[in-house]
Amino acid sequence: MRGIHNPVMHENVKPKSGSIWSMYKRIFFQVRSQWPLLVVAGISILAVSLLEFVIPQLSQYTIDHLIPDKRYDALIWIALSVLGTAVLLALFNYMSGIAMATIGQNAVYQLRNQLYRHLQMLDVGFFDRNRTGDLMSRVTSDVGMLQQLVSSGMMSIVTDLFTFVAVAAYMMWMDWQLTLVVLATFPLMIVTTRFFTKRIRAAFKKIQESVAEVTNHLQDTLSSIRLMKSFSTEEYETERFAVRSRNNMSANIAAVKLRSVYEPIIDLLIFAGLAVVLILGAKGTMDGNLTVGTIVAFLAYLRLLQNPVRRFSRTLNTIQQSAAAYERIVEILETKPQVVEKADALELQQVQGDVEFHEVSFAYHNGVPVLKQFNFKLEAGKITAIVGSSGAGKSTITHLITRFYDPQQGTITIDGHPLPDISLTSLRKQMGIVSQDIVLLNGTIRENIVYGKPHASDEEVEAAARAAHAHEFIMSFPLGYESQIGERGVKLSGGQKQRLSIARAILKDPRLIILDEATSSLDTESEKAIQDALEHLLANRTSLVIAHRLSTIQRADRIYVLDKDGILEFGTHESLLAKQGKYKQLYDLQFPQKQVEIETVK
């Protein structure tokens, strides 16, 4: 299970407002290149707003003129006009709907890709601090929330805004006094909306966070299903999942309660305005100041005026849900990597492989130093090995060479160039890494071998597999190199996985090779075969070998022995044995029979 449960926001994030306005501004920035569709949508929305006036006008004309004058001949034209207006409304609504949906989907597509691309640019430390399930939730669930807004909510808001302004202006022209009385309820609606807005958004943010917790639990447990089965913890994990699921349920209920109070209040204010219009309109009609057709048309316009408000109160649910999701997305997008590349970074072409640590001090996020004023050197074309107790910083050295992290103090150079002066891509292209943590993709054997060199020929792939002594077991599968290995290589043994990872590194043909417990999963026979292959492969290349098993490093040109205080001793295998120091102790622990043989000879 990765990292600790902390929010993504940390000291390298510049907090910005997650306001509705900034959300729409970012969305508009995403879609501004689609101006032809924006023009189509704008014209369609304007047409819909104007066509909304037609039917109330036809109703008023029918009541005030056709009915009193008994104009039977004109009724068919009124009916055709209403039907024609309805057809045009349907057409323009269709056009605006398609245009806005296309714009919205493109905005979400670009935003999701931007978010994923930004995640790829963040340093390894970021992923140590944040859980995989939470990040997955932000890329999928949170972006999905925005998709609801831009696909349908945005169209509704834009259309309703045009309609509201146009209808309000026309109603003021019809009867400004009656219109002002109706509009007097709107400040109350605004105050009510402002009161509930922050509360609803906070409620939906809790929902999104609870969804992330559920996703985290799923990701952790499903990826560790064999561990669960072996320890019979199914019931325990089910109970833990139920707690997270219950938290999500409670967060959803809290949001529904807020919405259930807010929407009836808006409806009450709307009906209050309708009651005022009915009373004053009826009085005006009875006094002879208004015609029946006028009051009917006014009521129709009032419906057009109030419908956007009613729809907005319903859409507020989507808006605040989207705003909560947007805040979580922005937290990622505004996170700055701690390992950054200079604008004028050097592009390494071909390195010799001299790597030097000078007075390097480094600590992970807990602040406990792993390396303190550490000095260390890899000589070009030589095999350098590191041994030592767990926690001495062996793997940390490889993380610093690959610039997964930067040291807090000191410098690391390759061929005399400080690592921060080199582009990350060109630096890592020079390296091949085979780790004890084997990472394989859910795909074919060939896809995993060519991962670092996707355009490799079949001959190159087979040569790399043979060098890693993997060709024989690969060809034992019915489909050979096209065989599926399952998620994380579940269909392979530990040794087979390791040999595939070694073949992948061999195919890349790097100048600097890092083997971090590379043979830890191999049996004795396979280990010997791999050692023979590596001896040929590592010739004239710089290589760093980290190992607990001393049998794998006896041919190294230099061996460093580390503990938590730094380098205890270094030398060749023979010279270190002669020193009778820490290396000799480790050797005697792993090969007690050798010690017995020596004592017997004596």
Compile the SSE list and pairings.
Blueprint: H1 20-31, H2 35-51, H3 54-69, H4 72-121, H5 124-129, H6 132-183, H7 186-222, H8 225-231, H9 234-286, H10 292-333, E1 355-363, E2 369-378, E3 383-388, H11 394-401, E4 409-414, E5 417-418, H12 424-429, E6 431-434, H13 445-449, H14 458-467, H15 471-475, H16 494-508, E7 512-516, H17 524-537, E8 542-546, E9 558-563, E10 566-571, H18 573-579, H19 582-590, H20 592-601
Transmembrane segments: 35-55, 75-95, 154-173, 179-197, 265-282, 288-305
InterPro entries: AAA+_ATPase, ABC1_TM_dom, ABC1_TM_sf, ABC_transporter-like_ATP-bd, ABC_transporter-like_CS, P-loop_NTPase, Type_1_exporter
Domain ABC transporter: 355-589
Summed up:
The chain has 602 residues and is an alpha/beta fold.
Description:
GO terms for molecular function: ATP binding; hydrolase activity. Residues 39-321 form the ABC transmembrane type-1 domain. Residues 355-589 form the ABC transporter domain. This protein has 602 residues and is an alpha/beta fold. It has 3 domains: 20-333, ABC transporter type 1, transmembrane domain (ABC transporter transmembrane region fold, Up-down Bundle); 342-430 and 541-602, Rossmann fold (3-Layer(aba) Sandwich); 432-509, P-loop containing nucleotide triphosphate hydrolases (Rossmann fold, 3-Layer(aba) Sandwich). The protein is built from 20 helices and 10 strands. The protein has a 6-stranded mixed beta sheet with strand order 6-7-8-3-9-10, with helices on both faces. A 4-stranded antiparallel beta sheet has the order 2-1-4-5, covered by helices on one side. α6 runs parallel beside α9 (234-286). It is elongated and about 120 Å long.
